[in-house]
Predict the 3D structure of the following.
Amino acid sequence: MSLFRRGEDRVTADEARRRVLDAEAPAVLLDIREQDEWDAGQAPGPVHAPLSRLAAGAVLPDAARGRPLVVICRSGNRSRQAAGLLAGRGAAAVDVKGGLKAWAAAGHPVVDERGNHGSIA
């Protein structure tokens, strides 16, 4: 059984969190924001792969290869583009509607690289 239903391409922040915490078949939270945005703060435990690199043809980091992907950016625009790009390469990818802003608004944590409270840049 696939983690993603056929034709589904966008999920809420709550659904994204559920998918990445799923004990049986966890998805990878793929943060595609640029380095300065990443440095300010992110959801706990994502894999970082900036959209600029993916669009230039970079491969996914090892931790994200061959796994379902939940793609996130700041507001949901770039993550939608990235999910489409990755799906075109054969990945099972959905994006988070509203991005990290929606993630934080839903009460989910945003942390910096030390695990302290982070911000959304």
